[in-house]
Write a structure and sequence with these properties.
heterodimer, A: Cytochrome Bc1 Complex, Chain C, 2 domains, two-stranded antiparallel ribbon, two-stranded antiparallel sheet, B: 2 domains, six-stranded antiparallel β-sheet, four-stranded antiparallel β-sheet, binds protoporphyrin IX containing FE, binds FE2/S2 (inorganic) cluster
Chain lengths: 416, 204
């Protein structure tokens, strides 16, 4: 009855036949993208809750007799509400999970070479989603306005200021003038709850539309079956109901895990950090910023020079050139490793010694930068750490390349 | 018919419809770009009362910047050799650029490039804002041999030698922390006697 009423107006039947019967190939790693999407949905839901209670202002107010910024006070009050602390932790844990899922998803695409023709555009869209998500997390970080928030944001402020030529203007645009000032929190709040989520939703939409249009890559095992059928259709599960039910149970399970983790494992305890105060204790950023944080520690202080009126300082090298270079490498991958025709199947990483060992070397390099973030507790000198990093990267790449060549040579495979 | 005419009367009128439209388009794009630039300018204000511009003046009294005694005058007698504290000039605590690390060393340990004239009875003071990315520096105290204590920024582990003009001993900081003159008054309090000897805060 109700269905008919809607169907007569919205042609749901037609939508069902056209869209919901589309095939989603099955492979466990294909759920990684969904994992990122589901974390985002959780973030929006918890974020809306927090948005009702959070106060984006650094005006000093009294909280239990002490004068603290209003933003900080509002977060402490959220934590005191029934379920408030848990919702805040769910928000933060989901942010971590979303970035982890994006990275795992990216690795899946990379090692199965799914970025090749025709999917170059979606690779770039994916990188954009990753960047936006990191930016969302970064702007969210300032909001509680604890000692930790302010230190982290201040570091980022000076990094953005160290961009050659445009840094000064860029930092003022981003931070609404100089940091710290009372204008930054309202601007970050707007970007965090409105601008970035809107951009994320738009880009996720584009990502998915392109995916549907270009079709998903299929596991190579589908190849024979498909040729036997002589068909062009993907082999997998229809989106509704089969894949839809799998995804929904997956999401519910994910929610269960996130709530469980948030109940028992604290994250960003703003009450422990306290409101902004002089003095900076040892503090490390969330894990996804650790490679940049570690890399910053490796740059010797006397390494600065200027070209064409732009000043290059250790901050510029560690905070701007290094991440910029990473982005450039990631973005150029599909244009350097090209395929002649469209690639309907996932490639076998074992058969691609160069790309696979390059990926492993890159991963090891980033992990070594994370380790570099801990040289103070490991008691390693920066110079020594630089040597370790280079050696580990070269060794990982070289050894995996040699092993893969050996493996394929033994089996008489041709490699690409 | 009329449209066709417009296309073929080029010679007479000297301008075609296409060129006219293009001209209007380019002009409006330029105008739009101009207004966006203006908007960006509005959105990136020059000053918001932040930044690292110190307001310390010679004669300002040193007070504790943190801990239970925040705001209380620092007494020379309360610091022994090897101690260090974070201080502000009294009643100017709202400006983070005023944060200073006051250290007491053995007078004979102070070596150039420390400006000895700006020290008094082993008291030496430096800006507490790390010249790398602006964290506050900390004092790493060595209980056994006080002269082996040093100043470290825990953010990216820049290390400064307080006995040698806060020279960078390691880590990413590009320049030393700027020194500032201090002196013990007759009542045993401390006052600033000069400006910072160099730039403070991150060098970007
Ligand atoms: C519509 C979407 C979102 C809304 C409305 C929203 C809202 C908020 C609000 C109001 C806060 C401040 C309260 C607090 O700190 O607990 C916050 C903090 C935060 N947000 Fe979001 N957010 C959204 C999406 C995201 C996304 C996509 C990410 C990152 C992937 C993210 C990461 C964070 C982080 C890391 C914090 C700091 C949390 C903490 O204090 O531990 N948020 N968010
Ligand atoms: S901010 Fe002090 S070492 Fe980076």
């Amino acid at each position: 009855m109700i269905f008919k009423w809607f169907d007569e107006r919205l042609e749901i039947e037609k939508f069902k036949a056209k869209f919901l019967r589309k095939t989603f190939p099955s492979h466990p790693t294909f759920l990684l993208g969904e994992l990122a999407l589901f974390s985002f949905i959780t973030l929006v839901m918890t974020g809306v809750f927090l948005g009702f209670l959070y106060e984006p202002s650094t005006k000093m107010v009294s909280l239990f007799g002490a004068m603290v910024p209003a933003a900080y006070a509002s977060v402490v009050r959220i934590d005191l509400l029934p379920m408030g602390l848990i919702v805040r932790r769910i928000h933060h844990w989901s942010a971590m999970l979303m970035i982890a899922a994006i990275l795992a998803h990216l690795m899946r695409i990379y090692f199965s070479s799914a970025y090749r023709k025709p999917r170059e555009i979606n690779w770039l869209a994916g990188l954009g989603l990753w960047g936006l998500t990191m930016f969302a997390a970064f702007t969210g970080y300032l909001l509680p306005y604890s000692q930790f928030s302010v230190t982290a944001t201040s570091i980022a402020y000076f990094i953005s200021k160290s961009v050659p030529w445009v840094g000064d203007w860029m930092s003022r645009l981003l931070f609404a003038g100089e940091f710290p000032s009372e204008a930054t929190v309202p601007r970050f709040f707007f970007m965090h709850v409105m601008l970035i989520p809107a951009a994320l939703i738009g880009l996720i939409g584009l990502h998915l539309v392109i995916l549907v249009k270009q079709k998903h890559t299929e596991p190579p095992a589908n190849k024979n079956r498909k040729e036997a059928q002589g068909g062009k259709r993907l082999i997998g599960l229809p989106i509704w109901p089969e894949q839809g039910v799998i995804s929904m149970s997956f999401y519910l399970f994910l929610l269960f895990v996130i709530v469980l983790v948030s109940t028992y494992i604290p994250l960003n305890p703003v009450e422990t950090y306290g409101p902004p105060s002089p003095g900076t204790p040892v503090m490390r950023p969330d894990w996804y910023f650790l490679p940049i944080y570690g890399f910053l520690k490796l740059i010797p202080g006397d390494l600065s020079f200027s070209i064409l009126g732009g000043k290059i300082t250790p901050e510029t090298i560690g905070g701007v050139i290094f991440p910029g270079f990473l982005v450039l490498v990631f973005a150029s991958i599909p244009f350097l490793d090209r395929a002649k025709g469209p690639q309907p199947y996932m490639a076998n990483p074992l058969r691609r010694p160069f790309m696979t060992s390059f990926g492993i070397a890159g991963g090891v390099f980033l992990c070594m930068d994370v380790v570099a973030g801990y040289i103070d507790v490991l008691h390693i000198a920066p110079q020594t750490m630089i040597i370790y990093t280079i050696l580990a990267t070269l060794a990982a790449g070289g050894i995996s390349f040699a092993l893969l060549r050996l493996y394929n040579g033994k089996r008489g495979n041709d490699v690409t | 018919m009329v449209e066709r005419d417009a296309g073929t009367t080029e010679g007479k009128a000297g301008i075609t419809r296409r060129r006219f439209t293009l001209g209007v388009l380019v002009a409006s794009l330029l105008g739009a770009a101009g207004s966006v630039l203006t908007l960006l300018k509005v959105l990136s204000p020059e000053k918001q009362g932040g930044g690292y511009v110190t307001t310390i003046r010679p004669g300002d009294r040193l007070v504790y910047a943190r801990g239970g005694e925040t705001g209380v005058t620092v007494r020379a007698s309360s610091m022994k050799v090897g101690d260090a504290v974070l201080v502000y000039p009294s009643s100017k605590a709202s400006n983070p650029a005023n944060l200073v690390q006051l250290i007491r060393l053995k007078e004979t340990d102070l070596k150039p490039p420390t400006n000895i004239g700006l020290t008094d009875q082993g008291f030496v003071a430096y800006s507490a804002i790390c010249t790398h990315l602006g964290c506050t520096v900390s004092w790493v105290e060595n209980q056994k041999s006080p002269d082996a204590s040093y100043t470290e920024c825990f953010c990216h582990n820049s290390i400064f030698d307080p006995a040698r003009g806060a020279k960078v001993m390691g880590g990413p900081a590009p320049i030393p922390l700027a020194q500032i003159g201090v002196k013990v008054t007759g009542e045993g309090a401390l006052i600033f006697t000069s400006d910072f000897t160099g730039p403070i805060g991150p060098q970007v």
